[in-house]
Design goal:
With 256 residues, the protein is an alpha/beta fold. The chain is built from nine helices and eight strands. β6, α7 and β7 form a beta-alpha-beta unit.
């Protein structure tokens, strides 16, 4: 920080276990990726190559190198895992991730139908070679989980070997842990937090109001994902009470 300002929340340094910001790269050019890394590397923990874009991005390896050189961990979104699993290509998936020299994988079943016991087996297997981040929740409203199922699946996936579990919301933030209008499903979220450790969850929160809600609920060290590449600094401003939505969160009442 350029100036010392009192009453700003303490942020842990990278590599961190809490206060994680996961950014979604939906097709940046190498120049854009380098620009983001130069400006924001301190505030980015992970860059996820969204959906199946890894397979069609000609500059993928170049971007992986850019992010790694900046101390940012790149990995492929869970849809890539699903693309391979749907085609019975688990071994090819592992080979592909290794060929990219990635250390992290995401396991999800947001689009495909996958027995949860089988998903847990994939997590257990992959955790022997990679750091696994698994996602709970579906990408369409025709499949829905009960609140108890959300919690149980998260706990089971952590027990199977996931480092973190993601609360699904898609890049739109209008499904999963949110209602169709983007408002949070607080009954679900509060129920999850009663049983699942907060620092074990990455909440997808692409919308500013969603980010602010989680910062107010959990604090500046909440783990947030699916952040736009253009919103990295803006999110950090929210985390530190430097934006109207969280302006008074960390100020002593005697100053207000």
């Amino acid at each position: 920080m350029i100036h010392r300002i009192p009453f700003l929340p303490k942020r842990t340094d990278k590599p961190r276990n809490a206060g994680i910001s996961m950014i979604i790269d939906k097709g940046l050019s190498s120049i854009e990726a380098q620009g983001m890394a130069d400006a924001c590397e301190k505030y980015i923990d992970f860059v996820k190559f969204g959906f199946g874009t890894a397979l069609i991005s000609p500059n993928l390896k170049e971007k992986i190198a850019i992010y790694k050189n900046a101390g940012i961990i790149p990995y492929c979104g869970g849809s890539l895992f699903e693309i391979f699993i749907l085609r019975n290509m688990y071994s090819e998936f592992v080979e592909y991730i290794k060929s990219l020299e990635l250390t992290h994988v995401e396991v999800s079943d947001g689009s495909i139908t996958l027995d949860h016991k089988k998903k847990l087996q994939f997590i257990e297997k992959l955790s022997l070679e990679f750091t696994v981040i698994s996602e709970v929740g579906y990408k369409t409203t025709d499949r829905e989980l009960t609140d108890d199922e959300w919690t149980k699946m998260m706990l089971d996936e952590l027990s199977a070997g996931s480092w973190k579990v993601i609360g699904e919301a898609r890049e739109s933030g209008t499904i999963g842990i949110y209602n169709a209008d983007g408002s949070p499903n607080r009954k679900l979220i509060d129920g999850i937090l009663e049983k699942v450790p907060a620092d074990s969850i990455i909440w997808e929160a692409p919308q500013k109001a969603q980010q602010a809600m989680f910062i107010k609920l959990i604090g500046s060290e909440v783990n947030l994902g699916n952040i736009s590449t253009s919103e990295v600094i803006a999110l950090e401003a929210l985390r530190q009470g430097l934006r109207g939505d969280t302006f008074f969160e960390f100020i002593p009442k005697s100053y207000i």
